[in-house]
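Figure 2 data, in text form.
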Amino acid sequence: MLPEEPPVSVEESSEQICLNCGEIVPDTYCSACGQVHEPLDFAVKSLLRRWLKNKRHHFNVFLFTTRHLLTDPGNVLRDYWSGKKKTYYNPFNYFVLLGSIMAFLMLKLGNYDPEIAAANMGSMYEQMGIEMNEGGAEGGMMAMKWIQGHFNFVLMLTVPFYAMALRFLFRKRGYKLGEMLILVLYSTALYLLFVMPLVPFLDYNNPFGSPIALVNFGILFSIWTWTIKHTLDIGWGRSIINAVLMYVLAQALVIAFFLAATIVALIVILLVALVVKLFKG
């Protein structure tokens, strides 16, 4: 029986041990956990250099993604759908980053007053024949305040509805909901990038009555149309129509969802109240 050969030590091997999971790292990145292998150097200068290098890389990928979304969005989407994800900025992160910047600008520079916005909403309901009592007006103001402080979250909630609407419009082509979600994330984030300079001039208290609101919606539909046209390979006329239909259908889905959620919440509250009453009785 042959004697066992002694194991090769790390010092005798050109390979390195991952400091995170302990596996052998043959190159720069650990194949087991993905951590980059780099020397333990906690000097402030080294930490700052690594941080700047990482941020510069993310910034370059961000610029690369933005440039190609503007010039050839169809190529970006098809690449990402086919698995070339490393080349482009993650669509979810891209959207969250620009949404957060937009929310900050709205809070600091935006023309937004929850009380005025709630009053305008009440006037709109009155024109539609819906009466708002005192409790409804107070609830509307609370909702407006919450929307003001959570703009990016509210916008994120609407994105899946736009994706569902677009998938429905092109359902015969067999696109998956996730593919349409990526398209909407990229294109809506690009819209936020373009509309940021307009924030000080937009009237968020009455978004549908402000003259510059036409510019705002024009930017939104232009970018949606541009992305749909180049990604789904259809003509300009059909792209414009589908962008408008996507918006209308998504709004209908949002209203239906919140109505259903309200009904479910009321039923739950009534059931809880009934259970409490039975136990007390």
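Caption note: The chain has a mean pLDDT of 79.
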